[in-house]
Amino acid sequence: MSTDFETIEDTRVGLEQAGYLAGESTALVSFLAGRLGKPVLVEGPAGVGKTELAKALSRATGRELIRLQCYEGLDEAKALYEWNYRKQLLRIQAEAADAGWEAVHDDIFGEEFLLSRPLLSAIAAEVPVVLLIDEIDKTDQEFEAMLLEVLSDFQISIPELGVVEASTHPLVLLTSNNSRELTEALKRRCLYLWLDYPDLERELEIVRLHAPELKGEVARKLVEVIHMVRGLDLKKPPSIAESIDWARALLLLGAEEIDRAMLESTMSIIVKHRTDLDVVAERVGAKLQDGLLEPSRQAG
Amino acid sequence: MASSSPPGKPADLYGGVERPGPPGMAPRLLEFADELRNEGMAVGTSELLDAFHALEQVSWTSQVDFREALAATLAKSQEDRRVLELVFDRFFFRAVEREAVEHGLSEERFDGAERLDLDELRELIREAIREGSDGEMRDLARLAIAAFGRQGEGSGVIGVDVQRIRRTLGLKGQSAGTELPDPDSVPREALKQFEQHIRRELERQLIERTQSLPPAKPLRELDRALPSGPSQDLAQVHRVVAQLKRRLATQGREQRGRRQGAVVDVRRTMRASLETGGVPLRLRHRPKRPRRPELYVLCDVSTSVTSASVFFLSVLHALHDSFRKLRSFVFVERISEVTDVFERERSFDAVSRAIATDAGVADVSGYTDYGRVWLEFLELVVDDLDPRSTVIVLGDARTNGREPHTAAFAQVAERAGRTFWMNPEPKLYWNYGDSVIKVYEPHCSGVFECWTTKQLEVFVNALTDTRVPAAP
Q1: Residue A192 and residue B77: Cβ atoms within 8 Å?
Q2: Which CA distances in Å does B312 have to A73, B199, B308, B459?
Q3: Interface A-B: count of C-beta contacts within 8 A
Q4: Where are the domains of chain A?
Q5: Which one of A236, B397, B404, B413 is CB 3.0 to 4.6 Å from B419, fit for a cystine?
Q6: DSSP classification of residue B427
Q7: Strands A162-165 and A155-158, how do they pair?
Q8: Where are the alpha helices (H) located in B211-285, listed in sequence order?
């Protein structure tokens, strides 16, 4: 079971069944990642479904998802492996006093005393997994350099034990919000996928997929409003997840129509800054009131 | 046929048709990679190998898959991606046309042009553009050209012909501001695509007529430059600003993380020493705070550099959170403060307009007078300047032959902690003609070229960097 998808179309369908509507390039890159065994670097604005792609891939392929959330100051001990210091101490104390140095030494640096962290778990897994290295741009360059061995050869060197090589090929996704330029060395080892906000029709499909009970016109209008809000100069534009949340909220409220009052009472779901709230209320709210957002076919 | 022409024979029988390299896919891809490198993309051998492996996995007959496979393996940033798409279109269009000329192929012309009803065609095209169907647009583009050919001869310049055809068809893009759609207008993006098709078809006809390829034009550097005119794509500007914002927002954190400061934090050191029985084995340092400078920005807004300056100012204001205090001034012949214009207006457009009309820029003669500006600036802010403040000047230092008043500038620079000069002209033109940047340069902490977004980013990074020494 080295590759799970036979064709690009398979990939797309598989992802769709896992609840992820993939664009052409997304499906193609996911397919290539499985075939070529290369990691994928996914970049794009926050909230376009970069992390979700990894989750969907894991669901679609039936592989376990191992996630490494990156943050400033993340180091080897938290990403690769760590020696279980306490257990080693106990082991030494439990040893009879006359046990030789050699015996104890060999003993305490065994796999039993190794705490494996996400990267080691992914490499050492018996069955292939999906490895998600989330927000790689949050770490520093030293950590990136450390990743190179893992990503190009799928192996980890542990000085006391030797090299742990992957018996199965994990499907690796790295996500980045592009808040820092990643090193060339890392980029060279990856396939590159840029995810952007979907266009109106695709987002409508996504919303319908996740909130199928919402009425057609309401859903369309919701997506139109979201797109308009993204067009404004906001501190944080609404993500896809937030449009889905909004759709669900409207569903709960039993909204029949998105008008100004409805927008103002629920807009905190899609806009998360006080100044942004003002801008949206002013710009979008006014348009809703004037009925300018009515679909053109009704106007004709 | 290719076999009929001996290998040594020059190919320019009909003009400039380049010789193709050795036959096959691999040489074509290498040529393609070469063109990418010429446009400044770093394409390494390992990427090329990946591309070959990827192409083994996808169908070559689907253009989308083919292009995406190349993009995923060769282009490693969004910028690269854009370059790749442009080069891809150019390269494969030329490759196909070259083959066609080599083999003496020509297309059947549509000859029912006189029977075409222009109104009907107009409706069809509008329909196709709204639907956004690519194939249909291409067919209709041909029909439109045929119909246009009947109306009169082309101007010979493809760009002009494209616009003429568009106007004859009465196609208008939806204007961005109004939400009420004009029934005759069509989506802007799709219209652009249609124009692209017309351009393609016209180029194809031209190549067929002359039996030679026009020279390959490099992508204009302007594509990647700062906005130089009011018509520049605003979305692009916003993307750049959004990007800068994000990078700056994370920057402070990055420095607080591992790169520790030099000051020992006694409390945290004591706390850490508890682990080792009260012996302070590990020193804890107080983290460095990111520098939040006080900024004084002076922008030349004379016609030669207006857009760059206004863009620059709007970037700084968008980044307002990163600065403790920001005051902006614009000048032509005299100086005036525009800080509140930026606080009031949110859109780049509105700001440009406001500055152009009512910011009170004393623009008497329209000629920049740097000397006078320094004198006035000194008078305005002399009491506020202190070693924590940073003065940024954006201008081309072209004094139109007037007195530069270097002494006044030196005084400003001396009172402020740092003084930067951003010159929107390429370095090549500095000190040429009436540019006097060299007399100001000794007083600045740094003089930067600033005519691409990349350079701008480098500068903004330097500005907020804690590691930059305060004075030269």
Answers
A1: yes
A2: 34, 34, 6, 11
A3: 91
A4: 8-71+124-194, 200-290
A5: B413
A6: G
A7: antiparallel
A8: 234-257, 266-273
Residue of A50, A190, A232, A233 to mutate, testing the B interface (most B Cβ within 10 Å of its Cβ): A233
User: Encoding tokens for residue B179?
Assistant: 């939400």
Do the chains contact at A8 and B65, CB–CB below 8 Å? yes
Indicate yes or no: CB of A28 within 8 angstroms of CB of B68.
yes
Q: Do B57 and A292 touch (CB under 8 A)?
A: no
- Quote the minimal CA–CA distance from A121 to chain B in Å: 26
CB contact under 8 A, A188 and B249: no
Q: Which of B286, B293, B250 is nearest to B466 (CA)?
A: B293
The CATH number corresponding to A8-71+124-194 among 3.30.70.3270, 1.10.3720.10, 3.40.50.300, 1.10.486.10 equals 3.40.50.300
Ramachandran bin of B81, using left for φ above 0, alpha for ψ from -120 to 50, beta for the remaining angles: alpha
Q: B85 is written with which tokens?
A: 């798409």
In this complex, the residue of A36, A73, A140 whose CB is nearest that of residue B50 is A36
Please identify among residues 218-257 of chain A the ones whose CB lies closer than 8 Å to any CB of chain B.
233
| Nearest CA among A205, A193, A230 for reference residue B76 | A193
Q: Is the pLDDT of residue B232 over 50?
A: no
Hey, is B391 helix, strand or coil? strand
Identify whether the C-beta of residue B202 lies closer than 8 Å to the C-beta of residue B162: yes
- Residues from chain B contacting residue A8 (CB–CB below 8 Å): 58, 65
- Do the interacting molecules here have an ipTM over 0.85? no
**For residue A30, what are the contacts with CB-CB under 8 A and spacing of at least 6?**
A5, A11, A15, A22, A40, A53, A57
* Contact yes or no for B375/B369 (Cβ under 8 A): no
Token pair recorded at residue B430: 């500095």
pLDDT one-digit tens code per residue, B45-75 = 888 888 888 888 887 777 788 888 888 999 8
pLDDT per position as a tens digit, B412-423:
888 888 888 888
CA angle A289, A290, A296 (to 5 degrees): 115
Q: Which residues of chain B have a CB within 8 Å of the CB of A180? A: 247, 250, 254
Output the DSSP codes for A135-152.
TGGGS-HHHHHHHHHHHH
Rounded CA gap, A186 and A191, in Å?
A: 10
The three-state secondary structure class of A207 is helix
| Per-position pLDDT tens, chain A of length 300 | 344 678 888 888 888 888 888 888 899 999 998 888 889 999 988 888 888 999 999 999 889 999 999 887 788 888 888 888 888 888 888 876 666 777 777 777 888 888 888 888 888 888 889 999 998 888 877 788 888 888 888 888 888 888 888 888 889 999 988 777 788 888 888 999 988 888 888 889 888 888 888 888 888 888 888 888 887 777 788 888 889 999 999 888 887 888 888 888 888 888 888 878 888 888 787 777 655 554 444 433
The closest of B373, B378, B376, B459 to B415, measured between CA atoms, is B378
Contacting residues for A46 by C-beta, under 8 A, at least 6 apart: A177, A236, A239
Do residues A276 and A244 lie in contact, with contact meaning Cβ atoms separated by under 8 Å? Answer: no
Taking contacts as CB-CB distances below 8 angstroms, the residues of chain B near A287 are 179
Question: Would you kindly state where each structural domain of chain B is located, as residue ranges?
Answer: 2-102, 113-219, 234-259+291-464, 260-290
- Predicted model pTM: 0.64
Rounded distance, CA A84 to CA A141, Å?
27
CATH node for B234-259+291-464: 3.40.50.410
What pairs with residue A42 in β-bridges? A175, A193
Binary contact (B238, A177; C-beta < 8 A): no
- Contact call for B253 and A72, based on CB within 8 A: yes
Alpha helices in B103-132 (DSSP H): 118-131
